[in-house]
Amino acid sequence: MKRSVLAVVTALAFVASFATTAVRAQSAAPAGYDFNGMPDMSDFDPATWTSPTGDTIKVAIVASFSGPAALVGQVYWASAAWAAHDINKRGGIVVDGKKKLIELIKADHASKPDQAKRVVERMVLQEKVNFLWGTDGSNLQKIINETANKYKVIAVNTASLSDDLQDATNFSRYAFQTSMSADQLGRGLAWYYGQMRKKERKFYILDQDYSFGRLLAEGFKKGLKEYYPDAQIVGEDYHKLFLTDYAPYLEKVKASGAEVVFTGDWIPDAANLLKQARQMGVKLPFAHVFMDEPNFLTEVGVEGTNGLVQISQYGTVGDAFKTPEQIRYYKAWNDLWQTKWKTAPFNTPLFQHPAGNIGSYIEQTEWLFSVIARAKSVDPEKIIKVWENDSYRFTNGKMLKMRACDHKAIQELHILEFVPPGEQKQSFNIRPYYWNANYSAAGPIHAVPSKAILPLMDTNLDRCKGANPAGE
Amino acid sequence: MNPTTSMYVAQGLHGLAYGMILFLIASGLNVIFGMMGVLNLAHASFFMLSAYLGYQVVALTGNFWLALLLAPLGSALVGVAMERFLLRRVHAFGHMGELILTVGVGSIVLAAVKSIWGTESLQLKMPAILSGRVTIAGLDYPVYRLFIIGLALLILAVMTLLLYRTRLGKIVRAAVSDAGMVNALGINIPLVFMLVFGVGVWMAGIAGVAIAPILTVFPGLADQVGMDAFIVVVTGGFGSLAGAFIVSLIFGLLSSYGVQFMSELAPVLIVAFMAIVLAIRPHGLLGARDS
Questions:
Q1: How is B122-153 classified by DSSP, letter by letter?
Q2: If contacts are CB pairs under 8 Å, which of residues 207-226 in chain B contact chain A?
Q3: Which among B141, B263, B264 is the top mutation candidate for probing chain A, defined by the most A β-carbons within 10 Å of its own β-carbon?
Q4: What is the dotted CATH code of the domain comprising A183-312+414-448?
Q5: A305-350 per-position pLDDT tens digit
Q6: Are the C-beta atoms of residues A167 and A461 closer than 8 Å to each other?
Q7: Could you give phi then psi for residue A98, rounded to 5 degrees?
Q8: How far is the C-alpha of A302 from the C-alpha of A304, rounded, in Å?
Q9: What does the alpha-carbon distance between residue B51 and residue B69 come to, in Å, rounded to a whole number?
Q10: Which residues, in sequence order, are bridge partners of residue A31?
């Protein structure tokens, strides 16, 4: 009798453990893009798309829509509008019992802090936006976050890369950083060279002399200590932004014996640096973040861009398109680019692929909409409750998790090795089997595991005292 | 040549090339600001406009030399129109009027280039014949930078000859010195000034096309080079091409050797030199007119 009772109890316990696991698995399954409901996007044109108005979910896209960085605003707009159009074609999101469409409003800061402050306040107080989406420039994102905190509006940082935006001094529970950080980028490249590639040992750091350039370099040096102690920094220089002549720096690089030049330069500096390097006969590979603008890569050519190594916030190991749904998602954008979009800059190679930064901005926006849908509300407290500890899967399989204590996204990053067009099918596995015919671009793609590049956690922030940096 | 010597010599060449880049950018401003006393804050915008026009000519024809010929002329035409129809009307209001007007023109030029060419970064293709490298005393040096050095020297020679060896140059110098007297002698002063302004903008245009192949043509190009031009003109002395040339050279060498030996302080060296020169000679190194 006792033996049979024991057997039954054991069996019940066994079954219960499976049920518990199944429930745990179900509740832990990350949210992601709903491919099944993907609407017909063939009417979308970023040049002419207009937002619905009325009783909508209002999102201010805070960016440079004028001034020298105006192109950045257009990239953000196209990306966010694509995500919004997708939702609107599905009928919108149910919030507070009612289906509402997404309305996007341009908030132009023209890269100026005083203008940023005025425009963000206007978005909150006059336009009564529910969300602030931003922005290019951590100094400007700080202004957005401060305003969000003041008026209790949710701010999403999709593009600014400074870790201190979410540190003890600046943290706001209304601000969420879905973007990567400069520190993660630097450490990620160090991890790749030390743990995966294990070939070159001598690095020259040549970066812009401002906060991002310095933070990126610090992250790289820290990462080398941790992941590649045999590596040597054979030179380190920081140049002013919008430098005209790189030749003196490149001469030092040549003399240093460097095997790789590490840089976080962005356009136009990234373009001028690479162009002048190749003109001077400096053929070293650049480990970079932003050397991906098609026009200058075309100018430098296949040979000059071969061997570049980029760390990216958007990628997937192996084939870029693993399922029919992923191909459909990609082609929805690319077909329109090829056939419908006639207005610059949207008809230029920069907008050809919904990948790279554009892909990331689209999917970070889709994450925001997913959070709203699951919160069933735009109430900031409900958004915060859903988003903290939330996991989300991009369409290409990349996983992100919102660390609860400081609202930073734990995420893997990807290393793209640039190869000639004939070898790009290592990642671009559908016709025409290359990302671009005019220059070297992504071939092999590797993942830097999220645990190797956890975002910095400031333990001076009370919420993070005793917290696990991995968000577990 | 041993590697260290080779590096120092190379830095000297880089300084020379960068100095000539600065001279090319500043020479046109020197002519306008120095000779006419006109504060043309749209100067860098004309530099940028010419770069865009040059890009367009190369994109259409594939011919860099045609771009070098036509783009500066295009910019000069816009400059001449600006002087004829706008600037002339505000002379009476002094420098403040000129400043405000030229800032406005600069904004219009920026809006126009964005409207026509968009906001993306463009590349002006270097001519194949200038895209290689030559070996000089064991040193590998880009041909294009030698071209820039040669072009700057040519501009200096031509402008010096024009100003000091031709009747036209005499008239211009006389008009700058005493417009009333020259006018009384029957010389059309407004036409002379318009010509000088046009030549100044043309020189900015030459710089725009010549330098674009090593840079990126984008809406912020004017901001990128504008301040450099003013610093050279002020330090070299208003109206002195020789002063601008010497100061450009010094700035170029300070920049390259500054990066070589004290990289973090390199940008400060140029400003420090300017401060020292102006402290000793407030009109600039070879300046002669009152500010």
A1: B-PPPPGGGSSEEEETTEEEEHHHHHHHHHHH
A2: 211, 214-216, 218-220, 223-225
A3: B263
A4: 3.40.50.2300
A5: 999 999 999 999 999 999 999 999 999 999 999 999 999 899 999 9
A6: yes
A7: -135, 140
A8: 6
A9: 12
A10: A392
For chain B, domain boundaries: 15-123+142-280
Cβ contacts of A254 on chain B, cutoff 8 Å: 7
CB burial readout A230-249, b (16+ within 10 A) else e? ebebbbebbbeebbbbbbbb
Judging by beta carbons within 10 Å of its beta carbon (0-12, 13-18, 19+), is residue A88 exposed, middle or buried? buried
Domain B15-123+142-280 class in CATH: mainly alpha
Task: Give me B167's structure tokens.
Answer: 């009747």
Tokens of B65: 């030399």
pLDDT digits (tens, 9 = 90+) for A343-369: 989 999 999 999 999 999 999 999 999
What confidence tier does B153 reach under pLDDT thresholds 50, 70, 90?
very high
Nearest chain B residue (CA) to A64 = B119
Q: Do B218 and A275 touch (CB under 8 A)?
A: no
Closest among A252, A216, A208 to B14, alpha carbons compared? A252
pTM for this predicted structure: 0.91
Q: Chain A: nearest CA to B98, how far in angstroms?
A: 23
Domain A57-180+342-411 has CATH 3.40.50.1970: no
Residues of A in contact with B119 (CB under 8 A): 70-71, 74, 345
Do residues A268 and B95 make contact, with C-beta atoms less than 8 angstroms apart?
A: no
Smallest CA–CA distance, residue A31 to chain B, in Å, is 35
Best mutation target among A244, A249, A290 (most B Cβ atoms within 10 Å) is A244
Tell me what ipTM this predicted complex has. 0.93
The predicted pLDDT at position A5 comes to 56
H helices present in A322-426, as ranges: 324-339, 356-375, 380-387
